[in-house]
């Protein structure tokens, strides 16, 4: 998106430039990373628990845990009572978990009828939680078509 204006008839002239959105997409650009974050957010901590929750092959899961650890989303930890090592989300990983809530809403809307939903209760008010993207400035929900990317100012020489 950052090089939106660098389009040719055949597509992008070059690789997209690194911006904050590219950083976010790179953090989860594979099939399994968000599943690992979801499993940890839902309480899995040991490798075998994550393996059962995610369903990835062992070598893939090990690779994703390593990638997520190196990127600061997951950290290894020792479990209490000497019960062996485990994993947990860092603050960066917990913040990424917010994305999963928005994706869940999309999944609830577009799932097949035979696919069950997962409901979350907001502990502060006791009501079922539904994620919504809002503008930080005005507080209104953001609807499709209401966002734009400002064009860079043309430089006059």
Overview of this protein structure:
A hairpin with a 6-residue loop joins strand 5 and strand 6. This protein has helices at 20-27, 33-41, 47-54, 58-70, 91-110; strands at residues 7-8, 11-12, 74-78, 85-89, 120-121, 128-129. A two-stranded antiparallel sheet has the order 1-2. A two-stranded antiparallel ribbon has the order 3-4. It starts with 6 loop residues before the first strand and ends in a 28-residue tail after the last strand. 37% of the residues lie in helices and 11% in strands. Helix 2 packs across helix 3 and helix 2 packs across helix 5 (91-110). By secondary structure, the chain is α+β, with helices and mostly antiparallel strands.
SSE layout:
Elements: E1 7-8, E2 11-12, H1 20-27, H2 33-41, H3 47-54, H4 58-70, E3 74-78, E4 85-89, H5 91-110, E5 120-121, E6 128-129
Antiparallel strand pairs: 1-2, 3-4, 5-6
Summarize the structure.
Helices cover 37% and strands 11% of the residues. The protein has helices at 20-27, 33-41, 47-54, 58-70, 91-110, and strands at residues 7-8, 11-12, 74-78, 85-89, 120-121, 128-129. Strands 1-2 form a two-stranded antiparallel sheet.
The SS-based structural class is: alpha+beta
In order across it, which strands form the biggest sheet? Answer: 1-2
The total strand number stands at 6
Low-confidence stretches: none
Q: How much of the polypeptide forms β-strand, as a percent range? A: 5-15%
**Shape summary:** globular
The averaged pLDDT comes out at: 86
Order of helices and strands: EEHHHHEEHEE
| Distance between the ends | 26 Å
The biggest sheet, with number of strands, parallel, antiparallel or mixed sense and barrel status, is: 2 strands, antiparallel
Give the C-alpha Rg.
Answer: 20 Å
Helix content: 25-40%
Q: What is the helix tally?
A: 5
């Amino acid at each position: 998106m950052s090089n939106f204006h660098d389009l040719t008839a055949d597509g992008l002239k070059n690789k997209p430039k690194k911006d904050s959105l590219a950083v976010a997409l790179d953090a989860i650009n594979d099939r399994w990373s968000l599943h690992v974050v979801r499993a940890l957010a839902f309480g899995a901590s040991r490798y075998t628990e994550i393996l059962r929750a995610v369903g990835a092959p062992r070598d893939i899961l090990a690779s994703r845990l390593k990638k997520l650890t190196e990127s600061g989303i997951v950290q290894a930890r020792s479990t209490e009572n000497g019960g062996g090592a485990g994993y947990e989300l860092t603050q960066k990983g917990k913040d990424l978990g917010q994305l999963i809530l928005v994706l869940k809403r999309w999944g609830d809307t577009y799932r097949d009828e035979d696919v069950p939903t997962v409901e979350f209760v907001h502990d502060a008010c006791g009501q079922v939680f539904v994620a919504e993207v809002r503008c930080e400035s005005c507080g209104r929900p953001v609807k499709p078509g209401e966002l734009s990317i400002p064009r860079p100012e043309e430089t006059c020489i």
